[in-house]
Amino acid sequence: MTVSVEEGSGIAGKRIVYIARKVEGPYLVRKSGKHRGLQGKLFDAEAYIDLAIEK
Q: Which of 6, 34, 35, 42 has its C-alpha lying 20 to 30 A from 28's C-alpha?
């Protein structure tokens, strides 16, 4: 398993599971066209890809 701890690192997946001490948000944001998504911040968190994006 790869563990990334650098600032600005990203993670992508169809389903991501997280464990966090504190959650700020979520806020509704525009993704593309009329599609919307959720954005927020996690503090002292760990995240795992539960369902990967199919290639």
A: 6
Residues whose CB is less than 8 angstroms from the CB of residue 44 and which lie 6 or more positions away in sequence, other chains included: 20, 21, 22
Quote the tokens at residue 11: 């993670």
The pTM of the full predicted model, rounded to 2 decimals, is 0.72
Instruction: Give the count of alpha carbons within 13 A of 55, CB side only.
Output: 0
Q: What is the pLDDT along the chain (55 residues), one digit of tens a residue?
A: 788 888 988 999 999 999 999 999 999 999 999 999 999 999 999 999 999 998 7
Largest CA distance in the chain: 36
1: tokens are: 């398993």
